[in-house]
Write a structure and sequence with these properties.
alpha+beta, Immunoglobulin-like, twelve-stranded antiparallel beta sheet, 26 strands, about 15% strand
Length: about 700
């Protein structure tokens, strides 16, 4: 038997032992790394303890089977072997780490022998490329630290750390430390300034985002050199350098509530990656200014940048997106930005225990994230417009067969099991409602099984059956979304009060078979354009609705959304002494007193009726009331249009399948859908992008 086969056999044995002893989140994950001074408020689930079924579960399975585990390992490794001399500005260095972190999430969720073999092969072949001085990367020695090199080393480290965290393989941790140790010999005080490293236009953002990976190494090794290097990175943000006369000043500007677009080098993906590191620095130092800065930065994104589908950016930059989202943007909502926003919200949820971040995760998951994934699960969009057509990502590197966004997409979707259920000091927290089951152990070792029976967010009822291995007392916390104003909650038939935007905390001695029924408010909500433009959108629960050309074709008429407040009422002509014969038409005329939605401090709702004739191309379809006004007071009548969930809209992914989210008031239906959006999304191409063969 060869040495490699022996190593793989031993590694497989370790994996099996870990599965048998069933490392679980609540019994053991409470033991944070000893070098953390602050513990997470909420502890992530062990993915294998979570089973998500139904629509969401199918999407996760497609992503694992057709994207993550179908990846060519040889293509990922080739740039690390060759180290192209002419690849100074390339970012092939990021692909292995992005993919491998997804693969580890996939394996931890579905720990099969086949998945383990893929992971072992990818790890072994990468480590074979490590040089004697510790370097793992795609740049030749002459260009070490050039271009995107430090950015790529970050993703390599995150991949290796993810493997170590699951297996406790100390050799892999040592290999990761060798990568970092080499970097520390070249970068730091008196050496290369990390804030002056990388692509000049990014002003050091990409390179300094290695912050989180360095702190994760400190947490696992206690090597103070890593903590010192992390503090050095943050200090350099406040020091002038050749890229910026003031320094990036990320901490100061976040604390001051400066809009993200006004912070130097407003590259959304990279800036959020840096703030992920700020949150980790808070955990190891206990300095509350880091937590405050991270939370304020997250809230600034919500206030100024996060669009209705739960993501941000135009042309990969901050763009004042909350106000600009109703426009035809050229390259909106980069998938890498969606993924990083979701991962940032996940870190904020862990650190603060504030359910607002779970609300954000849910909206992003069901709209921007799933909307960017192909129906087959094998490919992703680079950009996701709110109007026009869905456009698959071009391959940025043909030799690797990937783009940055195709590599990134699974990293957020496969994170879902980790935040769907979480642990705390007092018990279990349910953040995501989806058909499935959960098996966890509490601190005292009691095993708790929770079964969810629901088709939410299609239906409004969630039934939870709690089955502890023995009667035990703990707190079960249920997320009540901030948008859900009318809720019903009962435990074994007894009603309990619950408030929007909080966790409903149920503390009791639980016995096998205890049943919780939660009904959430899935009324259609009217969302006014934040820019005060005369446009509206509709959300139902966490789902954004859209018009789709397969359901609603262009027509020669203008329509207004018909809210519940503005519902039509029959006008009695005789009572008002009207003699106009138009009132005698069949059916009788209707009068709408208010011609459009007026500003109001109250949430406006709209009546939505499920469309039972829906096709297989759509997850959700609803009949939506619109108003037609052929003249001033007469013959106003209702027109029903069918709208679908945003993730299904445009999912034929071609020039003929168009959609839109924001609805002008009024909307001339002849111009509902702009054509050829692909031309401004991909200006470098002369033909509309298509999926790689077999990826749709």
């Amino acid at each position: 038997m060869s040495n490699k086969r022996i190593i793989n056999f031993v590694r497989a044995f370790i994996f099996i032992i870990l599965q048998v002893i069933s490392i679980n989140v609540f019994a053991q994950s409470q033991n944070q790394p000893s070098y953390q001074k602050v513990s997470d408020v909420l502890v992530p689930a062990t993915s294998s303890s979570v089973k998500i079924n139904g629509y969401l579960g199918e999407k996760i399975n497609l992503c694992i089977d057709n994207r993550v585990m179908a990846q060519s390992i040889e293509k990922l490794i080739r740039p690390f072997r060759l180290r192209f001399e002419n690849d100074f500005s390339g970012f092939r260095c990021e692909y292995w780490g992005k993919w491998f972190t997804s693969a580890m999430l996939a394996y931890s969720y579905q720990p099969t022998v086949e998945h383990r073999e893929v992971i072992n092969k990818a790890l072994d072949e990468l480590l074979e490329t490590q040089t004697p001085d510790g370097y793992i990367g795609t740049y030749d020695k002459q260009h070490y630290l050039g271009g995107w090199d430090v950015w790529g080393q970050k993703y390599t480290l995150l991949g290796l750390i993810a493997y170590y965290d699951y297996t406790k393989d100390k050799k892999v941790l040592e290999d990761a430390c060798r990568v970092a140790d080499l970097l520390l010999t070249k970068v730091g005080p008196g050496k290369v300034n990390i804030a002056e490293n990388g692509i000049p236009v990014l002003k050091g953002l990409a390179s300094t985002s290695i912050l989180r990976a360095i702190i994760l190494l400190y947490e696992r090794t206690g090597n103070k050199n890593y903590l010192d290097f992390a503090k050095y990175i943050v200090h350099q943000w406040s020091v002038p350098n050749k890229f910026t006369p003031t320094g990036l000043r990320l901490i100061e500007k976040a604390l001051a509530g400066v809009p993200p677009i006004e912070i130097d080098a407003p590259k959304a993906f990279e800036m959020m990656s840096n703030f992920e590191g700020v949150l980790e620095l808070y955990k190891v130092t206990g300095e509350k200014k880091y937590l405050e800065a991270a939370v304020k930065f997250g809230n600034s994104i919500r206030k100024y940048e996060r669009m209705i589908t739960g993501s941000c950016s135009n042309q990969e930059l901050w763009c004042d997106g909350v106000r600009e989202q109703t426009e035809v943007l050229p390259q909106p909502i980069e998938t890498c930005v969606t993924v990083t926003w979701m991962r940032y919200c996940y870190q904020l949820l862990r650190a603060t225990g504030n359910p607002v971040w779970a609300d954000e995760l849910e909206v992003s998951l069901y709209n921007a994230e799933l909307g960017a994934m192909s129906p087959h699960g094998g490919w992703w969009a680079y950009f996701s417009p709110l109007i026009g057509e869905r456009i698959p990502s071009l391959m940025q590197h043909e030799d690797v067969g990937l783009s940055c966004c195709v590599a990134s997409g699974p990293r957020a979707l496969l994170l879902t099991p980790r935040w769907s259920i979480m642990g705390s000091k007092n018990g279990i927290t349910i953040n995501l409602y989806s058909q499935g089951s959960y098996n966890e152990k509490l601190q005292d070792g009691t095993e708790v099984n929770i079964i969810q029976d629901t088709d939410y967010p299609v239906g409004d009822q969630i039934t939870l059956t709690v089955k502890p291995s023995k009667p035990c007392n703990f707190t079960l916390s249920l997320r009540i979304p901030g948008w859900s104003k009318k809720n019903k909650l009962s435990i074994n038939g007894q009603t309990k009060k619950c408030l929007p935007g909080t966790y409903a905390k149920i503390n009791r001695t639980w016995s096998a078979g205890d049943k919780i029924i939660l009904n959430l408010d899935l009324r259609g909500r009217i969302i006014p354009a934040p820019s005060d433009a005369p446009q509206l959108a509709i959300m139902r629960g966490p789902i954004v609705l859209a018009l789709d050309s397969r359901l609603v074709e262009p027509q020669d008429t203008s329509v207004w959304l018909l809210t519940e407040r503005d519902s039509l009422s029959k006008h009695d002509a005789s009572q008002n002494n009207f003699s106009n014969p138009l009132f005698d038409t069949n059916p009788p005329g209707y009068v709408r007193i208010k011609p459009c939605l007026l500003p109001t401090d109250k949430q406006e709702y709209i009546t939505l009726k499920p469309d039972t004739s829906k096709s297989k191309n759509f997850w959700m379809e609803f009949k939506v009331p619109f108003l037609v006004r052929p003249s001033h007071f007469f013959n106003h009548h209702e027109k029903t249009l069918v709208m679908c969930d945003y993730s299904s809209a445009g999912n034929n992914w071609n020039e003929k399948n168009l959609y839109r989210v924001w609805i002008p008031q009024p909307m001339y239906m002849g111009y509902m859908y702009p054509h050829n959006i692909w031309r401004i999304v991909n200006p470098e191409t002369n033909t509309c992008p298509v999926f790689p063969k077999g990826e749709f």
